[in-house]
Amino acid sequence: MSRVRWLVTGRVQGVGFRAFVAHAASGLGVVGTVRNLDDGRVEVVADGNSLALALLRNVVQGGSRSAVVSNVENADILVDMIGHKSFIII
Q: Which residues are CB-contacts of 70 (< 8 A; sequence separation ≥ 6)?
């Protein structure tokens, strides 16, 4: 299992992007969190096998129908996800 943290930039708040990411992650068997940040970005913290995380990153980069993703940045992991059994929207 691997853990990643991505900071997603673009038009990603107020467009259903978090629900889109949570749905995709759950379908891939990935657990973690997705939340809006005060600076307009969305933070994704995900835990899963390498293939599932690579597929999720592709989904995140593509964005939802209403979102426009301009960048997905790898970031240091700051959130302890121990105990998460699903993918949740914060």
A: 9, 10
At residue 73, the pLDDT reads 97
* pLDDT tens track for 28-74: 999 999 999 999 999 999 999 999 999 999 999 999 999 999 999 99
Question: For 47-69, b where at least 16 C-beta lie within 10 A, e where not — what string?
Answer: bbeeebbebbbebbeebbeebeb
Per the structure block, which two tokens stand in for 30? 């990935």
pLDDT for 89: 80
CB 51 within 8 A of CB 2: no
Cα(32)–Cα(47) distance, integer angstroms: 6
Residues catalogued as catalytic: 18, 36
Instruction: Confirm if 66 and 15 have CB atoms less than 8 A apart.
Output: yes
Are 88 and 36 spatial neighbours (Cβ–Cβ below 8 Å)? no
